[in-house]
Amino acid sequence: MKSLMDRIKEFHRDRTEPTRELKYKLMTDNEFTFYRATCHLFYEDLNTNSSLREGPPVWACGDLHLENFGSYRASNGLVYFDINDFDEAMLAPASWEIVRFLCSIGMASEQWKYSSKEAEGLMILALKAYTKQLAGGKAYAIERETSPPLIQEFFEMAESHKEKELIKARVDKKKERLKIIKGKTLQVSKKTYDLVKTSVNDFLKETYGYLKVKDVVFRIAGTGSLGVKRYAVLVIDQRQDKFRLLDVKQSFPSSLAPYNKIKQPAWSSESERIVTVQGLMQYALPRFMGTPALGEEFFVLKQLQPTSQKIDYSLCHKKMKNVETVMTTMAQAMASAQLRSASRKGSADVESLIKFSTQSLWQANLIQTAVEYVDTMKNYFKEYCADYKKGKMKD
User: Fold this and answer.
1) pLDDT for 4-18, tens place per residue?
2) Residue 336 and residue 239 share a domain
3) Most CB within 10 Å of its CB: which of 53, 241, 271, 274?
4) Looking at the structure, do residues 230 and 151 belong to the same domain, yes or no?
5) In a 3-state reduction of DSSP, which class is residue 316?
């Protein structure tokens, strides 16, 4: 049987960018960060669990945890709160998505300042909110005006960050260049610079002809995606004579793929899978979505924007009522995404989801599975930290 270190190293073998080492270090920060960074372990361990075979096939983000929800400005100019990461997205049993989310509640208990007992109570609350939303058979768009007070506060915080402020912080306007900022960006080689600039420009000509590339840097962002090729691209919007920033991120196969027995659509690339599923699940897409090819590798392109915000646990940990509000809203968003994408490319129809929501046995099984796996992951975290300190993550 492979050791924990060998399993982690094997998964990251083809992820050799400089940020891989940063990811290994970041994984020692806390239990929740470790959980976020090891989606592959979750499915390696639980794919044969009978409780995870429950439920109709749904479009799933695949890595649903508390920090894969957030706000973003859509192409219609409005800000929404929704699931915001689809790198692992696939057609999967509904229970896979639910358990991944429930486990994240338990793994975040130390960070969000609630007890293990309270975490189990929050799991039950979230599951009730999820099934209630499914039972209604209608997808719910989470917007500022219709959200509970805490989520409204979050929208206000997100909307206070303007695009021009991001441009001011990241761009040298006189030189039309991106700034190199410690912990956020790195220089790229001339070969990489030319490849990214030319490839993205060619793609933009076909899709967003008014955008033209001015500069490229390597971008450091995320947790699970550290170690992949990722670039910040400065473009000029020739319609309005203003700068915009794009995020261009390499696509890999989903961590679910080796264990998922549900037949998938025939995607032309992993990027097409990611962007298509995002379009099915989100209420409104972000600006400038696309799937450019850089040489033989495919990437996901979208606007890098200041309103891509995540829930800050500091807003919640002082009051359990606030935490409950957040969990309920996230569970509603999960159910709404499944309803929104129902009957699309192989997913179950709405009536099947409603029927699933009224069944009770699987719900108790999923809570038990989540509680038990939280203990497993916490033990993994302790083992990983000990081995990391001994230098075992070095090649």
Assistant:
1) 999 999 999 888 778
2) no
3) 274
4) no
5) coil
SS3 31: helix
Q: How far apart are CA 231 and CA 17, in angstroms?
A: 12
Residues 230 and 150 both lie in one domain: no
379 Cα distance to chain centroid = 24
What radius of gyration, in Å, describes the C-alpha atoms of the chain?
A: 21
Same domain, 104 and 198: no
Cα distance between residue 115 and residue 298, in whole Å: 43
Global confidence as pTM? 0.93
Are β-strands 57-60 and 293-294 bridged in parallel, bridged antiparallel, or unpaired?
A: unpaired
Residue keyed to tokens 């915000």: 309
290 and 175 in a common domain: yes
Question: Exposed, middle or buried by CB within 10 Å (0-12, 13-18, 19+), for 108?
Answer: buried
| Separation CA 286–CA 308 (nearest Å) | 10
pLDDT digits (tens, 9 = 90+) for 221-272: 888 889 999 999 999 999 999 999 999 999 999 999 999 999 999 999 999 9
Residue at which a domain ends, from 241, 269, 303: 303
- Whether 335 contacts 128, CB under 8 Å: no
CA distance 96 to 370: 11
Q: Enumerate long-range contacts of 184-187, CB under 8 Å, 24 or more apart.
A: 184/219, 184/220, 184/221, 185/217, 185/218, 185/219, 185/220, 185/232, 186/18, 186/217, 186/218, 186/220, 187/217, 187/218
* Contact criterion met (CB below 8 Å) for 96 and 65: no
| Residue range of the domain that includes 343 | 4-160+313-389
Domain membership flag for residue 319: yes
| DSSP β-ladder status, 57-60 and 242-250 | unpaired
Q: Are residues 111 and 205 in the same domain?
A: no
Q: Are residues 335 and 236 in the same domain?
A: no
Give pLDDT, residue 71: 81
Instruction: Verify that 188 and 99 share a domain, yes or no.
Output: no
Residue 366 lies in a domain: yes
